Amino acid sequence: MKRTRSSLHRDLPRSASLSALVLLAAGTLDLAQTLLLPGVLTGTPSGGAAFGWDWAAVLLLHLLLCAGVWLLFRTTPRYRPHDRASLQWITTLGLFLPGAGLLCGAFIVIALWAWRYDDEFFREYENYVYYVPGSLDTFDVNVEQQAALIPFREILLSGGYGTKKDAMFSLLQYEGGNKVALFQEALRDEDPEVVHYAATTLTYLNELFVREIKKETRELQADENSLHQWKALLQTYVRYLDSRLLTEELAAEVRTTLHRFVQRGASLFPSEPFFTEKLCYLARAEGDFALAERLARTLETTAEYRYVSYLASCERLYQERRFEELRRLSAVWWNSGVTIPESYQSAVRLWKEMNDQGVPQTSDFELRYR
Membrane spanning segments where (predicted)? Predict the structure, then answer.
């Protein structure tokens, strides 16, 4: 969810270039017919009824041009609401400044189209929240079963954000492992706007994973012999399972699908330890720590996956509440020089401080999350 240069794009839709060209043409025509009116350039207008009809013709064409521009803006899709407000001001400017207003409006749209940028992800997120019918009704979560959630109100009120929408989007960009838990906690907020943003955001995050999995599955089907495609798809499944977006039933279904993919990949690449590591991951996720430790031992000779043996043993000790052994083993791991993945560093640091009662041996009671 991080912002990157590739995620930046021109904020106005593609039709803005057409609007700019039409405005430029209409403005040029309006200016030309105004200047060519007899007497405008010389300052000595001809008299009589002919001059009156000339002015009437100019005014009529001016009004027709303004009406055409207004219809163009009304019928052009994909303008955001605040863009439409700006375009209404441009139409008003053109209406009350014959010969110059439409031309000024054209330069304004060209400037916006050429230089104004926005974040694509924010726009898509905002459109999803505002324009998906029944987005709140389609999201089903059992709030009562959520446990150990972080108080969302402190996050929402501590940042000095301008609006709740800004706060929610800032939270959406947060890369911590407890981001989903924060949005789930927001479902308990008494403010309906906060609840709506939280619910639609959780659904949106789900759909992002589903879209990515479908895309990578199609790419894998096009080239099943690509180890890179296999790794990308399986890592996405793992991130989806670790995201805490899934209910227990859905997580079980996703694990089953992942298990089938891992077995297929292992049959194509029998000497690749990546698939063994994923089998170990599934065993740990399902609570089969005996199988996880057996698989982890086969990875001890591979430097990239040596940490899996420590991780499987530590998680088994944690589940069995053998905190003293867990403390010793995690301390050995911490000092061994074996890689500790970033997502597990805070957990290992916490395990090192546990005693027989499971209470961290530290005077720093700041919460730390995986």
Answer: 56-73, 93-115
Q: Residue 123 is encoded by which pair of tokens?
A: 């726009």
Q: Read out DSSP for 28-90?
A: HHHHHHHHTSTTTTTS----HHHHHHHHHHHHHHHHHHHHHHHHHHHH-TT--HHHHHHHHHH
For the beta carbon of residue 124, count every other beta carbon within 10 angstroms: 13
> pLDDT, tens digit, for every residue of 150-177?
344 444 444 444 456 666 666 665 555 5
pLDDT in tens, 113-124: 666 555 454 555
Dist CA 47 CA 61 (whole Å): 21
In angstroms, the Cα distances linking 342 to 62, 334, 351 are 65, 12, 15
Q: How far apart are CA 51 and CA 45, in angstroms?
A: 7
Q: How far apart are CA 128 and CA 212, in angstroms?
A: 17
DSSP bridge partners of 118: 9
d(CA 317, CA 323) in angstroms, rounded, equals 7
Helix (H, G, I), strand (E, B) or coil at 12: coil
d(C-alpha 219, C-alpha 215), whole Å: 6
CA triplet 6, 9, 14: central angle to 5 degrees?
Answer: 140
Among 170, 163, 156, 201, CA closest to 3: 170
Give the torsion sign (CA, 238, 242, 245, 247): positive
pTM for the predicted model, two decimal places: 0.54
Q: Looking at 223-341, list the stretches that DSSP marks H as alpha helix, in order from N- to C-terminal side.
A: 227-242, 248-268, 273-285, 289-297, 307-319, 323-336
Helix and strand element counts for the chain (H, E): 16, 2
